Each structure stands twice: as C-alpha cells, then as structure tokens.
Amino acid sequence: MSGKLYALSTGPGAADLITVRGARILGNLDVLYAPAGRKGGDSLALSIVREYLGEQTDVRCCHFPMSADSAEKEAVWNEVAAALDAEVQAGKQVGFITLGDAMLFSTWVFLLQRLQHPEHVEIVPGVTSFAAIAARTQTPLAMEQQSLAVLSCTAPESDIRQALQQHDSLVLMKVYGRFARIKTLLHEAGLLNCALMMSEATLPGEQSWRHLCEVSDDQPLPYFSTILVNKQWVRV
Amino acid sequence: MSGKLYALSTGPGAADLITVRGARILGNLDVLYAPAGRKGGDSLALSIVREYLGEQTDVRCCHFPMSADSAEKEAVWNEVAAALDAEVQAGKQVGFITLGDAMLFSTWVFLLQRLQHPEHVEIVPGVTSFAAIAARTQTPLAMEQQSLAVLSCTAPESDIRQALQQHDSLVLMKVYGRFARIKTLLHEAGLLNCALMMSEATLPGEQSWRHLCEVSDDQPLPYFSTILVNKQWVRV
C-alpha cells in the first residue's frame, strides 16, 4: 500500500462533530501528528479525536511557536512538512489533525504549501466553529441574497469597520485580547445589539454572551472566542 | 421521553461527510422530514443519509416551491413548521435534514423562524459545500489576517463587485444560470486566474474547472455549482 497523508479536520470541539469519514480514517492510521499549544503541552485536537484512534497508531505531538519571528515559524513548518513527506515516502498512512476546518485559519495550510507530494494528500473538511456557534445559538449565518464575511480580529481596523458596514452577517474570529476594541467598533456601527459572543463552542467550557453591551471591556475570555453578527435575523 | 426536533446538516454530499452526531441521531428518529426538489420527486438530502436511518423511522418528503410568489412559499413554510411542532408535541423524535450546513442558505431557517417551541430544537451543524471544495482543490479559504466573503450570485451586482475588491478570498454560491455574468465580473476585477469552479462537490457527478477563462459562457452547469476565489494562494 502506498503512503498517504490525511489532513483531518476535527470540527469545533465536541468529539462527535467530526465527520464519519474523519473518524474512520483515524482508526486506520500508522502515525498521527497532533499540534500542541505549548512545547511538551497537551493537544486539544488530540483530546477531541482520541476515542477514534486505532491501537496501532503512533502519536507525535508537534509544537508550532506563536512567535512573531517568522523565520522561527517557517523553520518549524519546513521541519514538520519534511517529516510528513518522509512518512508518506516510507509508505505510511499518516494523519495531521487540525481544529475546525483544515482550510480556514489553520496552520495546516503552511504545511500543505511546503509538501513535496501534494498528490498524496487527502484533506477531510470539517465543521467550522462558526457553524457550531450559529447552531448552538440558533442564529442564521446567511439567507437568500444576504452575504457573510469571516474575518480575524487581527485584521486592520479599517477592514473590520468596512465589513461591518457592508455585510448582513459577520463572523469575527480571534477575539481574545481584542474584545474592548471590537466592542467599540460594533458600538460605532450600531451593531452591539445584533452581536453575540461564544467561547469554546461545543466543548465542556462553552460560554456565551447574548448582550455584549453588558460585557465589561476587561472580561477575561478563553483563547477560542468568536463574535457572530447578524443584522437581519428576526423570529416571525 | 419528551419530543425533540433535530435539524440535521447532511454536509456537502458524500454520505460519510455527515458528522458522527448527525449519523447517530438519524438512527434513533421516529420521523424524518426530507426536502424534495420537485413535488413527488427525489430528495438529494435523503439519498445522502439513507444508510444511517433506523428501520423504525417514517420518512416524509416535503416539497418547497422555488416560486417567486412569496405568499405561496410562506404558506408551505407555515404548514411544514406546524407539522414539525405537532410531531414534537406528540412526544416524537423528529428530524429535518438539510444540505450543507443548516444555518447557511438553507430553507431550514424559514422553518426555525416559525416554530412555536425553539427550546425543543437541536441544530447539528455540518460541513459546508465550500469547505469541501477548498479541501478537494487544496485551496485555502483564509489564513492569518485574510478575510473571506461568502455570497450568493443572486446578490446585487454592485455587492459582488465590491466584495471581489475587498476580500482576499470569496465563495460565490448559486452560480447556476449566472455563470456568464459572474465570469465578466471576475474578468473586470482581474481575478479570473485566481478563481475555480466546482459542481456537486464530493458527489458522484463532481466536476471542476481550474481555468475559468477557458469555460464558455454557455457551459451547461449542474444546479449546485460554486466558484471559489483566492487572491493570495501560492505554493512555496
């Protein structure tokens, strides 16, 4: 059997929000690469998929630095991509797990860019955190002719302001450390009452805030916090 | 046991791209409502999930008219919402299946708006068609500070033109019947070479076009056709 690399989207957090395909592939891997937040630390993605892993699977945690030093980050991406390439060349069934969906704001893409043999790659898509938040809060993402923008709160303020004006719905990801600034932008756009925030959606620590005007600027937030704005949603 | 209504996202089309949660719930339903394209016609959503259904499940196909007459559409939404409410009140475990993700461009939202007891509803999110297209074509949706816009090609031309200018990546859904117009907009924005199109992603009839400049304006397209634009994507 020839080697193959699967990029496996875990979905938003609950173990059963992975796809059936993802769960089946996890049971048949020789090696699984799991990203870890800290060096030697736990991997949230690994904790999500652990129940699906086969006994034969070697698990390798890899740490991607959050560093602002892009040379340091690129060195790690090069190293992990080379390791993945080597496993596939050795004929192994290799997995790389990634939170949410593999193609949206994921470190996986930096690895994909560097792989020597993309033809041996299968990417298994997943449920995004914002689809989970829309489901949990019963808030639509878009209907009919409406448009949806998905932004990171690390984007330039002018881009966020413009998107708030132009789209019917918005997903603002990576709120952590930027809540006060985003709250001000929402207030200026007259959208504070159309916004909600959710942290760690579908995980045991899930929290939600329906009335952002009541949330203090220095509210401590978990790392995975997202704001969803829908200007149009009304119940009949 | 008290009644409950599950809105079950099927994902993009391949049966194994439903979530594990969705598959498990399907096995335990008393009744499943499935939307059908034509009156008395087949339901694509039903064909996707059929393998997960329990033997005890009653399947009811319901037809939602594509009519421009909103009174006719609203009458059907009211009727189906009332039927769902009644099943839940009778203590049943009820499912409603919906293609892609339930909260994005889905008829489900018109039913949700009309339900008398949203507290008995659980929405199970799903993989969107555009996540599947990104995975199949190995094209990222967004990275780092980039932004993504998701639009319907039924939106006003000025909105599409503006979004093409402002976002790094775009998903243009509902291309069917509007390809020539969208191709012109992409050409005017200088983005024809950054765009790809896929129809019926992950279904047996999947087709893709990497070079839209070579696709004729009157190319016959399946109903489920989507264009993905990424201005920044380069392999290292």
From TrEMBL, chains A, B:
PANTHER family: COBALT-PRECORRIN-2 C(20)-METHYLTRANSFERASE. Pfam families: TP_methylase. It comes from the Bacteria. Signal peptide: none annotated. It comes from Kosakonia oryzendophytica. CDD domains: Precorrin_2_C20_MT (cd11645). Keywords: Cobalamin biosynthesis, Methyltransferase, S-adenosyl-L-methionine, Transferase. Residues 4-210 form the Tetrapyrrole methylase domain. Pathway: Cofactor biosynthesis; adenosylcobalamin biosynthesis. GO terms for biological process: cobalamin biosynthetic process; methylation. Belongs to the precorrin methyltransferase family. This is Precorrin-2/cobalt-factor-2 C20-methyltransferase. One of its GO terms (molecular function) is precorrin-2 C20-methyltransferase activity. InterPro entries: 4pyrrol_Mease, 4pyrrol_Methylase_sf, 4pyrrole_Mease_sub1, 4pyrrole_Mease_sub2, CobI/CbiL, CobI/CbiL/CobIJ_dom, Uropor_MeTrfase_CS.
